[in-house]
Design a protein that fits this description.
Chain lengths: 298, 251
């Protein structure tokens, strides 16, 4: 393997990925937009989310510019193939169920820290009548189905980050360093949107810097799980599905958490975000401590 | 398998289609940014049909729904022309690989088109403002999975006929089925209860959906799953019948 060429390809990819996406993000910011300014995600917010497609565009251009080719499966490919042989179907099931598990555990953990936030009548405040409570219990499955169907935006990211950047980084630095550096880079990529309130809003302690750090931490641990399912299945699709369902944040408990009841540090969005994601981080560390060597071998 | 899929991609003139889809997306972005808001709302006519952008978006989406049905015939016709199926029999491929490739190709095509349609709706909504046309398109977007499900169901019916009987005979069966449907519709027009349509109001339907959110949620979960199950069943049946036919031919 030519490490110099691999590094060059990685740099070309990163330049395109950051260049394209940040043009979109900065155009959004400079035209005076703020994420969910009226409390709801606007049409323009959704439109700027299409920036998620830029890593795929960057991957395709990097392959074209560096003459790497566009193999669909196999070594140095775009990892687009799907195989269910050798129990690989298991990683698709994991991808579908894992976000629900860690979000539910995360919300449970959050309620342990802030029990006063539990509000059995909160669904009514959200406009869900008592006779419609069944919706709440169906919601995670609905999120899994709709997340899987509408996974093209997550595909836009994963084809670039897990399908191109991570294999290059693992070849260059080994899996441990690659996951940390790759996660931080992925987190930094989100910064312009974090600055205008995506994920945490704009009223938290240490805005925007604590938000920037929290985003990188989340991306490192999330990256561990996504890299794991990609390598074990030999395909980016489980990562795409997991990412899409993660973005839909399936959980029943979330509909019983009334954040208006919180004060002080408990109301801080960055702190609660990190608490929500503790189970996901534990899962990420567990998977990596057990399976890291296998990923190196692949 | 990748080779078989690529062959089908070439068979439907895939590159041209990709550039057309990208062109549609760029055109929609330009038109949307050139005409922000809603023309009808600006002129206070209250008639959303005035909006060129609404029509353009709906036209693209309709275009997206029609395509897969054309492709099922096109990929099978192309294989007949180049005798691809006979050729794959001498290749070291799984015996169901050929049939699987057809189903996978249409599955991918429906996924890509669904993604494009979702993207077009996002582009439409970007600078639509709060007005009737945005509500219309947003309501319409709720039915996108249903329409894509129909595309998948149609393919589930068409593909077995095209694969097992050939495009010519398969088309005859397809037309016969369509004519059967049309005949039933005509029978309903003559003898059915048409009063149901007299007071049809889309707002009543929207209100019904809002009042029966449990049913709508359940439907949104079950319909894609059921569509996929039917699609898989269709594949299994085609493989089974195809295998039996080969046994008969080989004696």
């Amino acid at each position: 393997m030519d490490k110099k060429l691999e590094a060059k390809r990685l740099l070309v990819y990163l330049a395109f990925a950051f260049g394209f996406t940040w043009i979109v993000f900065f155009a959004y910011i400079l035209s005076g937009n703020i994420w969910a300014a009226d409390g709801e995600i606007s049409g323009m917010d959704q439109f700027v989310s299409l920036g998620m497609l830029c890593p795929t565009l960057a991957m395709l251009l990097a392959r074209y510019v560096t003459k790497e080719g566009f193999a669909v499966t196999g070594k140095d490919s775009m990892l687009l193939g799907i195989s269910f042989k050798d129990k690989k179907w298991l990683y698709f099931v994991i991808a579908m169920l894992l976000p629900w598990i860690y979000f539910e555990l995360g919300n449970g953990l959050f309620l342990l820290f802030s029990p006063q936030a539990f509000d059995a009548d909160y669904p009514a405040t959200l406009g869900i009548a008592d006779n419609e409570r069944a919706i709440l219990y169906m919601q995670p499955i609905a999120m899994i189905v709709s997340g899987t169907l509408t996974s093209f935006a997550a595909f836009g990211e994963e084809a670039g980050w897990r399908g191109y950047m991570m294999p290059k980084m693992i070849n260059l630095w080994g899996v441990r360093k690659a996951v940390v550096i790759g996660g931080v880079i992925w987190g930094i990529w989100h910064w312009p949107l974090t600055y205008v309130g995506h994920n945490f809003g704009m009223e938290y302690f240490g805005y925007p810097y604590t938000g920037f750090v929290a985003m990188c931490i989340m991306c490192v641990f999330m990256g561990m799980i996504l890299t794991y399912v990609t390598y074990k299945s030999g395909s980016i699709w489980p990562a795409v599905i997991l990412h899409a369902i993660n973005n839909a944040s399936p959980s029943i408990l979330q509909y019983f958490i009334n954040r208006d009841k919180l004060t002080g540090w408990q109301a801080d969005s960055v702190i609660s975000f990190l608490i929500y994601f503790i189970p996901m981080m534990v899962i990420g560390i567990f998977i990596f401590s057990v399976e890291r060597k296998q990923i190196v071998m692949l | 398998m990748a080779g078989l899929l690529y062959k089908d991609f070439v068979g439907i003139k895939g590159k041209r289609i990709i550039w057309t889809l990208i062109g549609c997306t760029v055109l929609l972005i330009i038109v949307r940014l050139a005409f922000p808001g809603n023309v009808a709302a600006a002129t206070e006519t209250g008639d959303v049909r005035d909006s060129f952008v609404v029509m353009l978006t709906l036209l693209f989406i309709a275009f997206g729904f029609v395509l897969p049905s054309g492709w099922t015939a096109a990929i099978c016709k192309n294989d007949e022309k180049y005798k691809t199926r006979q050729f794959t029999r001498v290749l070291p491929l799984d015996k169901n690989a050929y049939i699987a490739s057809k189903y996978i190709f249409i599955g991918i095509a429906v996924y890509v088109l669904y993604s494009m349609e979702t993207m077009w709706i996002i582009i439409f909504n970007s600078v639509a403002g709060d007005n009737a046309s945005r509500e219309l398109i947003s309501a319409f977007s709720q039915f996108l999975p249903v329409f894509c499900g129909i595309s998948l169901l149609l393919a589930s019916i068409e593909l077995p006929f095209f694969i097992m009987l050939g495009v010519k005979k398969g088309s005859v069966v397809k037309i016969a089925l369509l004519e059967g449907g049309a005949f039933l519709a005509i029978v309903y027009l003559f003898f059915g209860n048409l009063k149901v349509f007299e007071n049809f109001d889309i707002n009543v339907f929207v209100s019904w959906c809002q009042e029966h959110m449990v049913v709508v949620t359940l439907y949104s979960i079950l319909s894609p799953v059921l569509n996929l199950v039917v699609f898989l069943l269709s594949y299994r049946i085609t493989c089974r019948v195809s295998k039996n036919r080969e046994v008969e031919i080989d004696g």
